[in-house]
Specification:
single chain; mainly alpha; 9 helices
Length: 267
């Protein structure tokens, strides 16, 4: 897009009025000045002549000067806003990545992904093994269920540290949401510039919301009190909650490479 239309669109309406009417007024005053010159009106009025010519110059030059100055001011404000947004982007991206990784047992991204995948696998196996069959009733002892649940708990202990396996995990999710909103707010006007897909912020926001959609603490150790049907359904529900939350964490971990790239690109 040409800079001229942008300059005109960004100008204040009074500046636009001066740009339109200023040359017309200057033309009228110039014609009047020429008539006065032919009638020798200005011969004995040097001060008035200078003031009159200055007035004509003002109506010609001032509107266009204001137009250019307003455009330059707008460009400067945009440049300052961009620098500040990129500074906030780098800081928020770093804090988001650090906060996301602080409650994992493993130090590497790949190991964290594998740990979550193992946790999801154990939960899916539990739900598949305890699924009710239409033609057969399968009964379980408390010890049998406890052994199955223990596999899930061990997978949970292997992937997440203690703060993320209790009530403090909702603080973890709140911190992640806060840093992501800071990041998305700063980077939203510059998505094309940093090559970030427009739907990605919405999907990340959705993943954070789904982490607490069913429970603020989905990653809690499961316990078995009996082998009744009600207890079995409770355990299956908890396993499903863990699956959903783990998958959202997997998705967020998958965005870290792009966020790191964005942080580097805004330097």
């Amino acid at each position: 897009m040409s800079e001229s239309p942008r300059m005109w669109d960004s100008a204040h309406r009074w500046v636009k009025c001066l740009v339109f009417w200023g040359p017309l007024l200057a033309a009228g005053l110039g014609a009047l000045g020429c008539w006065g010159e032919q009638t020798n009106f200005w011969d004995d009025r040097p001060v008035a002549t200078n003031l009159y010519s200055s007035l004509i110059a003002f109506f010609i030059g001032a509107p266009f000067a204001l137009l250019v100055l307003s455009w330059l001011s707008d460009r400067q404000a945009q440049a300052v806003a961009r620098v500040m947004a990129f500074q906030q982007t780098r800081k928020a991206a770093r804090l988001f990545a650090e906060t996301l990784g602080k409650n994992f047992q493993a130090d590497t991204l790949e190991a964290r992904r594998r740990g979550l995948a193992d946790l999801v696998l154990e939960c899916r196996k539990f739900r598949a093994e305890t699924r009710r069959q239409p033609q057969a009733h399968v009964s379980y002892t408390t010890e049998h269920l406890a052994a199955k649940v223990d596999k899930i708990n061990r997978a949970l202990d292997a992937v997440l540290r203690v703060p993320a396996r209790g009530s403090l995990q909702k603080v973890w999710f709140a911190e992640l949401t806060m840093y992501w909103r800071q990041l998305s707010t700063a980077i939203m006007p510059y998505l094309d510039e940093v090559a970030f897909a427009p739907d990605r912020p919405v999907r990340i926001e959705g993943a954070l919301e789904r982490l607490t959609a069913d429970s603020e603490t989905p990653f809690t150790r499961m316990t078995v009190s009996s082998a009744t049907g009600v207890e079995l359904e409770r355990l299956r529900t908890e396993a499903k909650r863990v699956i959903d939350a783990a998958e959202q964490l997997q998705y967020l971990l998958g965005q870290l490479d792009d966020l790191e790239r964005i942080a580097a690109r805004t330097e």
